[in-house]
Amino acid sequence: MRDYFNDFKTYLIEVKKASKNTVESYMRDISQFSSYCSDVNVSDPSICDNKFLKQYSEYLLKQGKSASTVSRIGSTLRCFYKYLMAEKIVKINPAEKIDVKKAEKKLPGILTSKEILLLLSQTDGIDNKSIRDKAMLELLYATGIKVSELIELNVNDINLSIGILHLNKGNKERVIPIYPAAVKSITSYLENVRPAIATDDTDRLFTNMNGQAMSRQGFWKIIKHYADLAGIKKDITPQTLRHSFAAHLLENGAKLSDIKEMLGHSDISSTLVYAKLMKSQYTSAYAKFHPLAK
User: CATH says 2-86 is which class?
Assistant: First the structure.
């Protein structure tokens, strides 16, 4: 069984050209599936039928997995069995018709403009770490990029003289403006901090304090630390500043199509969630404050 999964990983990397994060996510799902198969004495995934996979989905739900998580795992299994079909190991894809009731998609959590300013003010120190952290948080809120994109940025991806960030991945090219305060913070970091912590052999814009590549978990700890210092009680994740960036642009009159391009969404439907978020907030405020709405 292990050979199937190792070969699938190679397929994801070399044929599908999947990102590192996607490969890690798929292989976590596959590892869980492998453990389940072992627990029920199934040694060969090629003999698993649709009924078996439905039972696995039901098992995951009983274990407390959310419907969206089980649905994602189902997508992983469909990809895995599609690979086995291509290799002529199976004739049909048993994961093709696994229906999981989709949970209602939650609207993203955001910070208010005041909370953003409060969060950013916590990094107003003079030591190397706070200067670096301020540059990272400012750039994230200024551009709305993903945390995975932030930690993979190279120095030449940013042009501070004209205040833009240039991302070019495959067929997707994005040019995103950077507001002056963020330019100032990043300039301070590049001039005063990065030369002291980054090794000569790395082009990465941001590293950890030891000069090594930063992880998403490492950045998550950074943002949680400053949220705690700011006394912000909301559940803040690395995506919170991205969501706040989009919501605040929309709230202040930006076009959905422009926000879509800056976020790098392939479909406008992904960006429409912020319009729903704004509508929800306005409706809530109306119900709460209009004298005749009660």
Answer: mainly alpha
